[in-house]
Amino acid sequence: MRPAQPEVQRRLARLWYPRLGRQVLLFDGAMGTELQRRGLPPGACPELWNLEAPHLVREVHQAYREAGAQILETNTFGANRFRLREYGLAERVAELNFRGVALAREVAGEEVLVAGSMGPTGQFLRPFGPLSFDEAYEVFAEQARALAEGGADLLLLETFSDLGEVRAALLAAREAADLPVLVQLTFDESGRTVTGVAPEAAVAVLEALGAAAVGANCSTGPEAMVRIVQAMARAAALPVSAQPNAGLPRMEGGRAVYPLAPEEMAECGLRLVEAGAALVGGCCGTTPRHISALGRRLEGQPVARRAGAGAAGEEAGAGGGPEAPRFSGPVVPPVRLASRGQLVLVGSGQLPVAVGERLNPTARRRLAEELRSGRMSLVREEARRQAEAGAQVLDVNAGLPGIYEAATLAEMVEAIQAVADLPLSLDTADPRALEAGLRSFPGRALINSVTGEVRRLEEVLPLARRYGAAVLGLTLDERGIPPRAEERLQVAERILEAALAAGLRPEDLVIDCLVLAAGAQQREAAETIRAVRLVKERLGLATLLGISNVSHGLPNRPLLNATFLAMALGAGLDAALLNPYDPGVMAVLQAGAVLAGRDQHARRYLAAQAAEGAPFLPGEAAPGAGGAGARTGAARGDEGAQVAEDLRPLWRAILEGDRSAVEGAVEAALAGGRAPLAIIEGAVVPALDEVGRRYERGVYFLPQLMLAAESAQLAFARLRRELQGEGGPVRGTVVLATVKGDIHDIGKNIVGVMLSNHGFQVVDLGKDVPLERILAAAASERADIVGLSALMTTTMAEMRRVVEEIRRRGLAVRVMVGGAVVTPQFAREIGADAYGKDAVAAVQQALRLVQAERGRREQE
Q1: In angstroms, what CA-CA distances link 120 with 32, 160, 315, 326, 495?
Q2: Helix 648-655 vs helix 685-697: angle between axes, to the nearest 10 degrees?
Q3: What is the rounded distance in angstroms from the CA atom of residue 220 to the CA atom of residue 198?
């Protein structure tokens, strides 16, 4: 890590640390739209103006400083290697970032802070995209070093939508420079990012990784952002930031106009502060006038008092909270585990948590064989089924002789993400495998485990600190498992002391007092229960036990497991590693929470009983899962019941994005005598329809949509070979293009895959496509539909030009438009025939257009 420059340290000591969280700090506003007002051409690289038009960049900074901004952001949002590659500037990362800081510093002087702006790469991390964690880390580290060397006071990660990518960026930024790092994600109207990240889950992950502040920017207007800030403020102990757009843009006179006036923005800014924001500024469409109005309205406004992370229990659906009884020991906040979309709280009076134990190859021959062969289908199946059964955390173990555990564990973590949006417990004794798993998992994992052994503490605790993970501490040391509860407590105390010395907090630690087989060591069962009680009373730490161990070697194991679990819950147990398929154990977990006073008003218990005695209400969050049961992506009820049994493996593989299983499932269906068209109509199309339904319900998000679409493409590619000479079903031809001046194409690419999977012939012209090329392709391909995409407000006007020219030339083609900045109103204004708000909607609109055209022709 590069130490901060002395002058930077002085500015931070004077302008940042004394103010942060005590008074509202004012960011500046939009850079891109201000540069466009000064002549930046559509599609040009804004960061290049740091070298080619520095006086104009400096002019924007000066206007914001005069407006009262206390933090100026550098013109470096897209100055990472991947983004600059689009302009042929990949080798100028250091130069453009260094110069960007210098321009802001010239204006800021010594009384205003400079934040080095860092945006996303534009690519998804594995398993949803091609980018590895290590590649993302290096790209962000390179930019962070350049910003720090230029003299930035802060680093600002902004407009991220994926938790995996922003984890890599935050880790890289913190390790590249000794500067405070602020992190902002972009959310849509659903309250989540396009990849399904929930605000509370993001807070848990980013706080643990060492962010200086967390928040939201871009995407929505300030009204919608109030709810995001409220959710973050309830969950965060850190300051929260908010930088909304000046509303959603509309086109007037061929240019994008943002509707919120400065005074309206100022009133919204006040509501953001009242919701919990401690740093406020603006994003797209905001001007120095907006920032000036914000500054006047917020002058003297105190930062709202809030409860912080301790208040997150009810919001996470944990069901416990301040009324839940506590033992007499220290009050420790709950341990927070998180996936992309789920926050799970462990301990501190929260409902007990079920940790699924089935992803462990020990004594499970079929799983062991699959892992040795490199297949992940059973891993996916077990993850999905455990989530359906009510597990809120999944324990993942890849410990097999003869395999490279680090690679296998990372592959398992990636495979699970596609089917179960749940936090993971990474179960390994290999530090290399542990680090590989921590880098692959986009949330906050539980490390399983550390012991009281000095060597193990030295191996594991630094990894937990670096990657922001929680730690499971086993009460054993170099002498083995102590026989008496008091001795196990002493080991727990040593683990806690070592964790604190390593920079962890008590709320980062879960203690396992260890369960031994009652058939061989009967007395030890009672000692384990007593040890749990002592840990709760003396240390206040969260506790977990591996319940199934107690019955090893004895008959009627489910009865013993359930009884032991009930006893442990009475002693204060917070989480259990168990078999979630055992209805007796799951029912005891639920009933025990009522009798232990942890399920307030028996809300979860009553809801579950209303579902005919099911352990948990289908479709509802299991205790502490914050909605995990409804969002795992697992099939429930009779979904897919109409799919023939021999086609269900293919249906399932597409639904879960299991690309490795698709070809085998297609071959099996063909070998069974199924015709190619029957496979498409009986498995592929129903799977895609179900994916669309889950996407519309908010169960699936963009990553799952992408994986399913790509899996369906593999099936079509194989079946197309069988269809040669028969002619497959073609619904129409669509020419797709991102319009001239716009280099963004992720959304357009997904639309193309989805259209292709639904029987359209897709001609994808790529990005930054000139008008004439679009028109030529529409004519030569005899297209039924032209699909236009734009992500930038400056390129929306190009859509109008394309539509007008199509109409002027009398081309018999329908036009569909879409993209992050495009609205239904804009689509109507420019005369487009359809608006696709996302890939699922684009398919629906395309089907509507071709059906309408077919109906018109039949009438003629």
Answers
A1: 16, 6, 29, 43, 38
A2: 40
A3: 15
pLDDT for 857 equals 66
> Is 139 in contact with 121 (CB distance < 8 Å)?
yes
User: What is the C-alpha to C-alpha distance for residues 643 and 631, in angstroms, rounded to an integer?
Assistant: 22
The two tokens of residue 208 are 């643990």
In the chain, DSSP finds a helix count (H) and a strand count (E) of: 34, 25
Measured CA to CA, the distance from residue 199 to residue 219 in angstroms comes to 14
Q: Output the CA–CA distances (angstroms, integers) from residue 812 to 97, 776, 783, in the order listed.
A: 48, 13, 8
The dihedrals phi and psi of 852, each to the nearest 5 degrees, come to -65, -40
Tokens for 543?
């506790």
Residue 148 CA: distances (Å) to CA of 154, 160, 460, 798: 8, 21, 30, 38
> Could you tell me which of 643, 659, 639, 772 has the C-alpha nearest to residue 706?
659
d(CA 7, CA 741): 40
Amino acid, single-letter form, for residue 290: H
**pLDDT of 254:** 63
pLDDT at 327: 47
Task: Report how far residue 96's alpha carbon sits from residue 134's, in angstroms, rounded to the nearest whole number.
Answer: 23
Euclidean distance between the first and final Cα of the chain, in Å?
73
Q: How many CA atoms lie within 13 A of 423 on its CB side?
A: 31
Instruction: Give strand ranges (E) for 561-699.
Output: 575-578
CA angle 434, 437, 442 (to 5 degrees): 135
| Neighbouring C-beta atoms of residue 380, cutoff 10 Å | 24
Apex 203 CA angle, 197 and 205, nearest 5: 80
C-alpha distances in angstroms, 660 versus 400, 412, 461, 670?
Answer: 22, 13, 35, 17
In 3D, which of 754, 733, 732, 772 has the Cα closest to residue 818? 754
In sequence order, what E strands does 475-569 have? 509-512, 542-546
Identify which of 820, 846, 852, 828 has the alpha carbon closest to the alpha carbon of residue 187.
Answer: 820
Q: Distances from the Cα of 568 to the Cαs of 562, 588, 608, 726, in angstroms? A: 10, 11, 22, 65
Determine the angle formed by the axes of helices 702-723 and 648-655, rounding to 10 degrees: 140
Amino acid, single-letter form, for residue 559: L
Pairing assessment for the beta strands 335-338 and 343-346 based on DSSP bridges: antiparallel
**Per-residue pLDDT, 758:** 85
Q: Is 362 exposed, middle or buried (0-12, 13-18, 19+ CB in 10 A)?
A: exposed
**Buried-exposed string 294-332: b where 16+ CB fall within 10 A, e elsewhere:** bbebbeeeebbebeebbbbbebbbbbbbeebebbeeeeb
* Contact (Cβ atoms closer than 8 angstroms) between residue 516 and residue 481: yes
Tens-place pLDDT, residues 426-457: 999 999 999 999 999 999 999 999 999 999 99
Q: Are residues 251 and 829 in contact, defined by beta-carbon separation less than 8 angstroms?
A: yes
- What are the angstrom distances between the C-alpha of 664 and each of 380, 670, 708? 16, 10, 16
Q: Confirm if 744 and 791 have CB atoms less than 8 A apart.
A: yes
Cα separation, 691 vs 712, in Å, equals: 11
- Give the separation between CA 313 and CA 321, rounded to whole angstroms: 6
What radius of gyration, in Å, describes the C-alpha atoms of the chain? 28
Coil, strand or helix: which one is 171? helix
Strand, helix or coil for residue 558: helix
| 393 neighbors 355 (Cβ within 8 angstroms) | yes
How many Å separate Cα 466 from the centre of its chain? 19
pLDDT in tens, 224-259: 899 999 999 999 999 999 999 998 777 776 667 888
Find out whether 834 and 814 touch, Cβ atoms under 8 Å: yes
Looking from the CA of 609 toward its CB, the CA atoms found within 13 Å total 9
Q: Which residues of the chain have pLDDT under 70?
A: 221, 253-255, 307-329, 611-641, 724-729, 857-860
Name the DSSP class of 220: S
Tokens of 430: 């290999």
Name the residue with tokens 């669509």.
734
